[in-house]
Amino acid sequence: MPTHPALQVDKLHVTLSSQTLLQDVSFTVQPGTLLWLTGANGAGKSTLLRALVGLLPHKGNVLVSGVSPTTLTGRKCCVFVPDEPALYDDLTLREHAQFTARAYQDEQAESRTIDFLQRFRLTHHLDEFPTLHSKGMRQKLSLSLALGLSAPLLLLDEPFNGLDAEAQQVLRLALINRAEHGGAVVLSAHQAEIGEALTQHASRARVAVLREGTFVERGLPL
How far apart are CA 193 and CA 175, in angstroms? Predict the structure, then answer.
């Protein structure tokens, strides 16, 4: 059984160009929890997710499974999917699956990623390069790579953007299943109907609202 929270944030503060973007954000996410981040545009959702994985300078403490997310061990414990797919233009979809499995030293990740690519109906594109594909198809690849990994924490920034209705359903079920089997999921989604569908069907669901850089939680207590 895990001995540490999947994610522990204490007094996170982000300031860029003398502007405070996040102020004293503190919360904990236990294994098996799905946390939906919502809020108006510019409230700080993307800023928070990027700060959690060390992509933005910040003050305060962030621990993933008890270690810093910027260490080698911490990086293996969490997977971040940004709002814009970050892919290698010179690798095919199949090669992305192989590379990610090796990078994370996760032997089963390649086959799990291929399985998700099939669920997203990309089977016939496995040997193509992502530069040939639409944004929605690239998003499906990015999500398949993340879902194929067995990391304890999954962080996703607006993952439903650009997905067709069938793909949204695949992703919803995958995220709920991930949480039900002990993984922790933190995602931002501005679509109320999607967030509500997730939190209604995940047994340990929480909702947090970001307002002008502050964190206000509804639902289960911290």
Answer: 15
Q: How many domains does the chain have?
A: 1
Output the domain CATH number for residue 84.
Answer: 3.40.50.300
The answer to whether residue 152 sits within a structural domain is: yes
* Residue pLDDT, tens place only, 115-136: 999 999 999 999 999 999 999 9
**Whole-model pTM?**
0.92
